Input
Amino acid sequence: MTARAIAPMSQPERRTALPLRTQMAMFLRLLAIQGSWNYEILLGNGIGFCVEPALRLFPEGIHSQHFKDALARESKYFNAHPYLASVAVGALARAELDGEPPERIERFRTALCGPLGSVGDRLVWAGWLPFCSLLALLVFGLGGGAGLVLLVFLGSYNIGHFALRLWGLRTGWNHGMRVASALGNPVFRNGPQQIARVAGLATGLAIPLALHRVIGPGRVLLGGVLVCVVVGALVLVRLQGRIEGWRLALFLLVAFALFSVAH
Amino acid sequence: MWMDLLPIALLGGLLGLDVVSFPQAMISRPLVAATIAGTLIGHSLSGLLVGAALELVALDTLPFGASRYPEWGSAAVVGGAIFATHPEHPAGAMEVAIIASLSTAWIGGWTMVKLRERNALWAARRRAALDAGARGTVIELQLLCMTADYLRGALLAAISYAVFAPLTTFAITKWGTDARISRAVVVTLAASVAAGAAWKIFHSVSGARWFFLGGLAVGLVIMATR
Output
């Protein structure tokens, strides 16, 4: 370990902005951050992969021990929500380029894992994704064509997706090792609840309309289906934790298909 | 059928890659993947119909962290393509297409676990170079694992389509249940799973159930007036 790696940079050497080209390279790599996800180091190699374009800005260059030490540090075990990992990538790039002591960076890296995982799961996987999915199903139920349904889903989802990754990278870079305060953003605190309410509304609207579109006209059949859906949903809620709904649906469908073929 | 195998495999690889590795833009969601597959075969509406039913089921399986979940990208390509090859929508076509997708998603989830184990092995073999901060190794590992993921999805889609496409044709000739009743069974199961999943996700949020009931009332009114 060189003395240069341990001693923080003097104030005038600190970077205030990343070159646009570096930002673009990091953003593109963020889209592949889970490319080598595995059960040993999880996102670790992905973080190193994404931070690497920023590390090239070390004055000593990519063949220096300084660069290699930093890349080795950033490629170790890491876990976070893939979209919010951009916060870590930005903050860690800043910390490395600012010459923060390695042991501080390692502690900071460890501390980031938990919050970036749980916040992202609640906001994206349990909020934004089901909401956009139900919104698209609602458009489908209202008679939207293939192009419109896909546009609504991919458009709405990815506005949030790309905005979150971009915000994360910029926020991480701007705040560096003080990035924790940015996670107190009201969007993270109140966003999941607000999205859940709107998604609840979309669920109620989308399910009957989507059913109607797939089955076609016929009120008696549709009424019967709706009653069965209510009963089926209640059964699945009661069975929660014992069997997953999609597996049960597969078993029942296979049984129905065998009956229909043998019938 | 054999003419379609290569484009389906390529598409299955691409959409399988989106699930976790790149770019996670949710083009792998069943609604999107099945519609694209339907368009590839020449009948986007068929893909959309089967995609909507699968999307309802997929609400039950959200990709939380390291949890094990079905792989919908390649799976929905298979279902969308199979249903689109029967654009007149005979009885049994949608049912077997959905069975094909769900089975493929299940196997796909297992292949993802195996790939992650393989990724760990590849990372372990490169441990010394990674610990030394070798730039080439970090990039090579990332690209190797992504390539393997692409091939996994492509192979899975190709094998599944090769198995289920003839099975669907056979099932259609033997199917004895009325087409509308058959479709009603599929959507009842799919919507039950979706409603159960939505309850699981939203029930703990104060007021969400009232929003759901309000939405349901409006949805039923719109449905009744159509």
